[in-house]
Amino acid sequence: MRVSRRQWIMGHAALVLAALVALVPLVGVVLMALGSPADVGGKVSL
Amino acid sequence: MQPATLSRPSAREGRRRAGRRSGLVPRYIGLAYLLPALAVYVLFLFAPFVHSVYLSFFSWDGITPHHYVGLRNYEDAIRSGEIRSGFLHAFVLIAFYALLTTAVALLLAGIMGSMRVRGLVVLRTILFLPYVIAPVVTGVAWRWLLSPSGPVNGIFRSVGLGSWAKPWLGDFDWALPSVGLIGTWMLYGLAMMLLLAGVQRIPLELYEAARIDGASAVREFFAVTLPGVRNEVTVVLVLAVTAALRNFDLIYVTTQGGPGTSTEVPSWMVYRQAFFVGDLGRASALGVLLTLLILLLSLAILRPWRRS
Fold first, then answer.
1. Between B262 and B13, whose confidence is greater?
2. Does residue A33 sit at the B interface (CB-CB below 8 Å)?
3. How many CB atoms lie within 10 A of CB B274?
4. How far apart are CA B71 and CA B92, in angstroms?
5. A13 — contact with chain B (CB < 8 Å)?
6. Mean pLDDT, to the nearest integer, of B190-203?
C-alpha cells in the first residue's frame, strides 16, 4: 500500500525504536556477562 | 456391466463398519484418542486443584494433623488488608500487561500492516525474542539493568538526569511499575504477532476505500484496523490478564514481593503463605480465590466476543 513519506518515516522510526527496546537489553546483558560476569551474578564462558 | 459411478458409503456407515471391525462403538474410539491428553490434564491440573480446594477448608502446617475450619481461610483472606493490597497490585500489573502491551502491539501491528516494511521477518523475530526467553532469565537481566549502578541509571547520569536515577526495583513507588514494564517488555512481541496475523487478514480494499474517502492514518486505524483485529485483541487480553495474575517467577527473581509488601501479588502470597508462614490451608484458599478471579476476568473479556 502507498503511504506518504511522513507516515513512512514515522512508521519505520517506531518499528526501529521497538526493535531496539527488545534487543538492546538482551545484547547488553550478554556483553556484560562476557566482560564482567560477577556484575550480572554469574560466570559465563564461550 | 457395472455402472460408471458407484455410490460411496456414507460417513456414518463407514464409522459403523469401522466400529464393528474393532468391536468398539465409534463414539468410544473418539474418546480413546482424547484419553492421553485428558489423563495428563486430570492428573496434573484438575486433581491438584481439587486437592487445593479440599485443603482450603483445613488449617494445616504441612506436618501435623490438619483440622477442619470450614470457610475461615476464605474469610481471613477476604478480610486481610494485606491480601486485598496484593490483589490491588495484581490489577496494577494487569494495566501494564494487558492495556499497555495491547496498545504497543496494536501500534506496531498497525504500522506493519499498513506499509511495506523492509526486513519484516528479521524485525518480527527481534520483537518476538523477549517472549521466548525464560521469565527467570528476563528477571535476572532486568534486575541488573535496573540496579542502582546499572545501565539504565548510568544512561540517566550520562545525559545529566542524575536526579532521575534510583534503585528502580528497591523503590516503594517505582518497584511495581518497574515489574509491570518488564512484563510489558516480555509480552508485547507475542501480542504483536497475534495482532499482525489479524491485520494481514484485513482486505486491502477496505484501506483503499478509507483512503478514497479521505481518512487520515489515525482514522484508518480506528475505522479499519481496530475492528478487523477485534478477535485477536480479545485473545491478547485474555493471555495478558492471565499472565499478570499468574505472575510469580518475575516477582520471585526481581523483588521477592519487596520492598516491604509493595510488589506482593496473590501468586507470590500463595507461595509465601505455604512455604514461609507454613499455613497450607490459607495458601490453598488464596490459590482458589486467584483461580476464580482469573476465570471471572477471562469470562468477562470473552463474553462480548461470544455475543458478537
1. B262
2. no
3. 20
4. 28
5. no
6. 89
- Residue A34: pLDDT band (50, 70, 90) is confident
Task: Render pLDDT for B78-87 as a digit per residue (tens, 0 to 9).
Answer: 888 888 899 9
B58 forms beta bridges with: B68
Partner-chain contact A41 B144, CB within 8 Å? yes
Q: Are the beta carbons of B245 and B290 closer than 8 angstroms?
A: yes
Asked if B93 and B176 touch (Cβ cutoff 8 Å), the reply is yes
B25 phi/psi in degrees, rounded to 5: -70, 135
Check if the beta carbon of residue B97 is closer than 8 Å to that of residue B301: no
Measure B87 CA to nearest chain A CA, in Å.
29
CA distance B275 to chain A (A): 25
- The reported pLDDT for the residue numbered A11 is 84
Contact B115 A11 (CB under 8 A): yes
Q: B266: left (phi > 0), else alpha (psi -120 to 50), else beta?
A: alpha
Report the residue from A11, A22, A28 with minimal CB separation from B111.
Answer: A11
What ipTM goes with this model? 0.76
Place of cell 550478554: A30
Flag whether the pTM goes above 0.90: no
Q: Do A25 and B141 touch (CB under 8 A)?
A: yes
List, as one string, the DSSP characters of B217-276: HHHHIIIIIHHHTHHHHHHHHHHHHHHHHH--HHHHHHTTT-STTTT--HHHHHHHIIII
Q: Does A1 contact B204 at a Cβ distance shorter than 8 Å?
A: yes
Cα distance between residue B169 and residue B44, in whole Å: 34
- Picking from A8, A23, A32, the nearest residue to B115 by CB comes out as A8
Burial class (CB in 10 A: 0-12, 13-18, 19+), B168: buried
Return the CA Rg of chain A.
Answer: 17
Mutate: best of B108, B155, B218, partner A, most A CBs <10 A: B108
Q: Model confidence over B123-136: pLDDT tens digits?
A: 888 989 899 888 88
